[in-house]
Amino acid sequence: MFEVTINGIALRLETNDEVFSPKWADKGTLAMLSHVSFTAEDKVLDLGCGCGIVGIAAAKAIGGDKVFMCDISENAIKLSKENARLNGIENVTVIQSDGLKDVTESGFTLILSNPPYHTDFSVAKAFIEKGFNRLVIGGRMFMVTKRLDWYKNKLTAIFGGVKVYEQDGYFVFEAEKRRADYAVKKGKRK
Questions:
Q1: Which of 6, 45, 107, 157 is the most buried (most CB within 10 A)?
Q2: pLDDT value for 143
Q3: Rounded to an integer, what distance in angstroms lies between the CA atom of residue 19 and that of residue 82?
């Protein structure tokens, strides 16, 4: 178990060695959350929720009924549900899913993810492409990694642009959905 305060919100989180960052809050996750502000109108997806730190912080800020969390790991799902309970969060939706495959919800205003970036890019590619389709126009995707070029290029190709913040050795990406379809490369389509 560890305790952390995020944007003035104190959290207690159970964890274990089978999930990402089992002993403390990951610096990358904290860097990403320092660039996110939640509003009462938000509908949030914590994509690859791990022990639930991102989704629970969001739920504490805006209410559990507006927050969805998913992870491929059964262990992560159990921990996220337990951590929601430990932190007094009700009505949060926690789904076991390989990326967005089993998430039926859409219309998100925020999708937040610290993807597994030490493997190949197939997971992150699916998160970005499928995530784009689940956002409302004006919705934003935040991702955090230690790698810059591939993520910057991919998010720009899909969203048409991306803001990049560098913090504590991590890159935080913020991309806004401005149109219903993927960005168009110059000279391809009108």
A1: 45
A2: 97
A3: 14
Q: Please, where are the H alpha helices in the chain?
A: 27-33, 53-62, 74-86, 122-134, 149-159
pLDDT tens digits along 120-139: 799 999 999 999 999 999 99
Residues 80, 55 contacting (CB under 8 angstroms): yes
Number of domains forming the structure of the chain: 1
Q: Is 135 helix (H, G, I), strand (E, B) or coil?
A: strand
- Residue 182 tokens, joined: 């993927």
**DSSP β-bridge partners for residue 167:** 170
Q: What residues form DSSP beta bridges with 45?
A: 68, 111
Q: Over the stretch 142-176, which tens digit does the pLDDT of each residue have?
A: 999 999 999 999 999 999 999 999 999 999 999 99
| CA–CA distance, 8 with 187 (Å, rounded to integer) | 47
Residue 182 lies in a domain: no
Amino acid making up residue 75: N
Within 10 A of 94 (CB to CB), how many other CB atoms are there? Answer: 24
- Structural domain range at position 169: 2-176
The Cα–Cα gap between 120 and 103 comes to 23
Residues of 60-74 as b/e, b for ≥16 C-beta within 10 angstroms?
bbbbbebbbbbbebe
Compute the mean pLDDT over every residue in the chain, rounded to the nearest whole number. 92
